[in-house]
Amino acid sequence: MYYQNISNTNILDAVSNRERDVIRLLITKKTSDEIAKTLNISKHTVDTHRRNILRKFNLSSTFELINYFRNNPKLI
Description:
This protein is an all-alpha fold. The protein is built from four helices and no strands. It has helices at residues 17-27, 32-39, 43-56, 62-71. Helix 1 (17-27) crosses helix 3 (43-56) and helix 2 crosses helix 3 (43-56). The longest helix is centred in the middle third of the chain and has 14 residues, at 43-56. It is globular. The two termini are 17 Å apart.
């Protein structure tokens, strides 16, 4: 039931399936509310995933996160 989870072999093992879904949707400029509706989870859960992703990659903002994954498309 994950959102278009089609390229597992190219994604870092450190990131959960749901975090991958959140990353993919962030890159498409979706808001936390839109991501929550798409994935059938709460906005709070989306924000928790976002914080966890930032921590795992030692990034300080969602802008950095989006640029990081846009510049490293093989990771997602």
